[in-house]
Amino acid sequence: MNKTPHHPDHSHPVESPSSPERRDALRASSALLLCAGLGIGKAALAEGPSNSRPKAGDQLVRSDSEGNPVPLRSTEILPDTKPLPAFPLEPASGEVRSGSRLNKVILIRVAPGDLTEETRPYAAGGVLAYSAVCTHQGCEVSEWVAKDKTLMCYCHFSKFSPGRAGEVVAGPAPRTLPLLPLREENGVLVVAGPFTSNPGVAKST
Amino acid sequence: MQTRLKALCASLAALPLLASAALPAYSPVTDARLTKPEAANWLMYRGNYEGWGYSPLKQINSQNVGKLVPAWSYATGMTEGHQAPPMVNNGYMYVTTPNNQVIALEASTGKELWRYKKTIPDELMQLHPTNRGVALYGDKLYLATTDAFLVALDAATGKELWKVAVADWKKGYYMTLAPLAARGKIMVGSSGGELGIRGFVAAFDAQTGKEAWRTYTIAGPGEAGAETWPGETYKTGGGSVWITGTYDSETSLAFWGVGNAGPWMPDTRPGDNLYANSTIALDVDTGKIKGHHQYHWNDAWDWDEVSAPLLIDVEHKGKKVKSLVHAGRNGYLWLLERTRDKVNYVDAWPYVTQNVFTSLDPKTGRPTYDPKRVPGTGKTTNFCPSLWGGKDWPPEAYNPGTGLLYIPANNNLCSELTGEPVKYNAGNLFIGVSLDNILTNVRMTEKSRKHIGEVQAWDLKTGKKVWTHTYPEMNWGPLMTTAGNLVFGGGTNDRMFRALDAKSGKVLWETPTPSGVTGVPSSFEVNGEQYVAVQSGWGVDAQRMQGAFDAVLEHKTVVPQGGTIHVFKLQK
After folding, report:
1. Which class is B27-570 in CATH?
2. What is the tens place of the pLDDT at every residue in B363-380?
């Protein structure tokens, strides 16, 4: 089970309503909500380091870490087991980018022989970071299927090959799982660049 | 001349922009019409407030159904579970699809009138990308969305009139049900039983969207039943509501089915856990709970009892009973009595293999459990029926002509679950069974290797099963029955949509569709011609069960995805 650390509740985007317990407040502002449109909400979402996408130089911390988050080292990622869910950490501010679940990644160790040429540059110390959000309907890619060495989403059984740049090998997902390039600094995993494509669901039209 | 032209233009502009010449002006849907729906229309989820899934039309009947041919079809462009009935109001058809879309069509031709697409947040996780239809009321229609909004559209133009946030999707609340409309109110409930929600039914003013009342399905402090939840467990107690309630217009009571208690392991919340796994009778004006019946207490098996009970007047042991009938996910067929202020137990019996209940209290219907069949944290338990139950959400149908109740059942199937500790984190899964276990939970028996899916016909007067039609694997097909002595349904992984003889269960007609059929069928008439409509579009739980079958069976079955609306009529 993935445990997301405290979510700093910076913004109330238009499509992110209050809980039922807070519905009175909502009722009061509902007229405003109706008029506001979607643009403002999206802008609000993008504010602050906790919501913004991972950047080169970020470190990674366990998504269930509590208290002072400790940057993950490549040796902590073990072979042939469930991927480890993590969030990027901005070292300068110490802020964990857990404000958006689209920032969540899963870390997986892939044997050198199972890595395609295309995939190798994204790995550091044998570890790859993929978006944790399935490109089908946005559920979490959390499962490791040992027999075909794939990452699987439990919602609708999409399977992705970590050694083959997140290629879809089964299920309804329409596109590859985005990669977050990694490098290593004294054994600590560091983000080397932005996601290879937008994490999350490709909107159907 | 010019003035007259202007007046004409003005009147034309006032007309719905896209209404085709063949279509009459949109006819508003009133309480009177919903209470006594015209045979030619299908105005709500199950065709009537009583939840029958019954069409009084009989032009298509058991004599001529073999001549059923496609009238038109329409590709929705969506994948995943297409479960909504095509609803029809005097020539206008409304169909919902996954990803919160509504398509309005000319019912007799399939010509698109308009299409509405709700914008979905980028971060939304759709555990169940499906929708079970709209509510038609006045000149509007209402859509409940997976980001937990209630949206009102102009039924003629598709223009969005208002939308209100019903709950917070970031905390795991989402909606897939067709709303219920009655007495000026639009009622909805929320899914999220696996995400630690606290379930509710809420009503909104049909005109303005203003919230009228909200009744929690999980009793909290100060509410009757609060003592059945230790500590703060009620806050994340589940009790989701994801199937449309039925409604008794004489008493203004709506009957809703309530999902399982959460998380799954019963030792995390010792107590009866009211009103999880119950039906509740809500006063539509106030939201007050006027009665309830809990089918089983302290759930341990993921047996959501979300299907609303059917309102049927039956004769039981020589006595007329205004009843509530429910084929439970727990494998028992329940007969209850509804009064103005109470729900009383009458009778119940298993309709599929069930090894958990050892007895029922003859007065209250409260079951006693075999402790060996009750899952718990740190132990592994095998039980039948499986976690998908004897019948999951696909609705039963009742035919007043044959007097029979039809059940889309899954028999002979068992599950094995190992409970593990779980911690609540808003918006994340809160189950207490590993995903790996859930994905492979199915246990096949000698019998289930022979057959699983069934359509059963029960005579409620005698309590006897009249016929059973069996399928080799699962049945996820909602049923519709008609005055033409027919029962329609799909639900199998061979992509078939079928018509059965309502009296004998014999298959009279079948046709393969592009995907599997888990849609609710409907029937309607335009210009004196009867049509049968259904969506094909396999996905969500049916596909999940298929995945579990693939994990334990030697053979794998591929059911292609992609939604289509199908409308059939008799060949001339």
Report:
1. mainly beta
2. 999 999 999 999 999 999
